[in-house]
Amino acid sequence: MTTVEFRTGEALADAERWTAHNYHPLPVVVAEADGAWVTDVDGRRYLDFLAGYSALNFGHRHPDLIAAAHAQLDRLTLTSRAFVHDRFAEFCRGLAELCGKDLVLPMNTGAEAVETAIKVARKWGYRVKGVADERAEIIVASGNFHGRTTTIVSFSTDPEARADFGPYTPGFVVVPYGDVAAVRDAITPNTVAVLMEPIQGEAGVLVPPAGFFAGVRELCTEHNVLMIADEIQSGLGRTGKTFAIEHDDVVPDMYVLGKALGGGIVPVSAVAADRNVLGVLRPGEHGSTFGGNPLACAVGAEVVRLLAGGEFQERSARLGARLHDGLNALIGKGVVAVRGRGLWAGVDIDPALMTGRQACERLAERGVLAKDTHGSTIRLAPPLVVTEEDIDLALTHLAAVVQG
Ligand SMILES: *Cc1c(COP(=O)(O)O)cnc(C)c1O
């Protein structure tokens, strides 16, 4: 074993020794990164085609985001919400305007934002819609991924995510993803919300049938039910638009945002909705010590500014077409199916050839980082700053892996 190999090996063993095994990472130990590229502890460079599951939409260490973070670190980092700080309103206003909504409620992680959406929908149900106490129901989709809290895993359909973590929170009804008739049948007078991902990332980048969300929107309006779009992974430029739900020409009642909202620097999440919805919360009913902290707001405001320019959405659409053309050309040549929008793709590798995990290991050996989801599916989600040459390089390596 060379000294070079030694560093990766030791770092992997250390991580294994000192942490709970709730992840099964690829054997790569990253030390530095810039844009779409990362460097490991042994100096090997990799193209990052996962981008922190869309938390790094603007690439690693985008100069504007790093500058915003540095400037804020030198002034003020935390107040708690017991006081107001001078970056708070700027971020909330910018994000509300980006979403076209009246109000924003900032949290930290995606799961917290989903929890916020659930609490707000329930309270709205009781106080505005007039649902009887303790009866609120929320409709969700099979194959969903909304986070890891006990309430959220209560309505997961993935046995790994859910088993052994009960007793489960009641009040959720699961319907097949993409089935409007099933949503219609599931709506009762107690339904307060339909909570879904516009594209299901964890499930393998599943794009619902055309017209599905238009149908859901119509049903929600007709039955006075809140339509909640979990855009934590699909939003903020990933699919070629600011929000993936725009592809369906639909406006939800509430957006749930996270991941890229923190610019790859700090965890920042939020929900955005109009006053008739988010206005139901009163002091003391919900909160977070770190939610909307000055550093988060400084970075988040810069994220909003980057998105308001439209450049990243345009790149995602244009470069995404190149990525999808290249991937589609591999169908029948080791690849069985390709799904997605913009710079986001779920790629089903022929299961007779290898698992998704094996494909990702072989890609990593060739210097491309991606992650498998289920079985033989791998997920590609490069940072939106990726170049055409980067995409072509990744496609060349993927072709070699699936044909090798
Ligand atoms: C990642 C993700 C979450 C959870 O976000 P965390 O920051 O990991 O808590 C929720 N919903 C979707 C769609 C996600 O992709």
TrEMBL record:
Q: Which UniProt keywords apply?
A: Amino-acid biosynthesis, Aminotransferase, Proline biosynthesis, Pyridoxal phosphate, Transferase
Q: Which Pfam families match?
A: Aminotran_3
Keyword Transferase assigned = yes
> Required co-factor?
pyridoxal 5'-phosphate
Q: What class of enzyme is it?
A: transferase
Which EC number(s) are documented for this chain?
Answer: 2.6.1.13
| Source organism superkingdom | Bacteria
Q: Does the keyword Transferase apply?
A: yes
Q: In which pathway does it act?
A: Amino-acid biosynthesis; L-proline biosynthesis; L-glutamate 5-semialdehyde from L-ornithine: step 1/1
The UniProt transmembrane annotation reads none
GO aspect biological process, one term: L-proline biosynthetic process
Which family does the entry's similarity section mention? Belongs to the class-III pyridoxal-phosphate-dependent aminotransferase family.
Q: What is this protein called?
A: ornithine aminotransferase
Give the organism the record lists.
Answer: Actinoplanes utahensis
Q: Give the gene name.
A: rocD
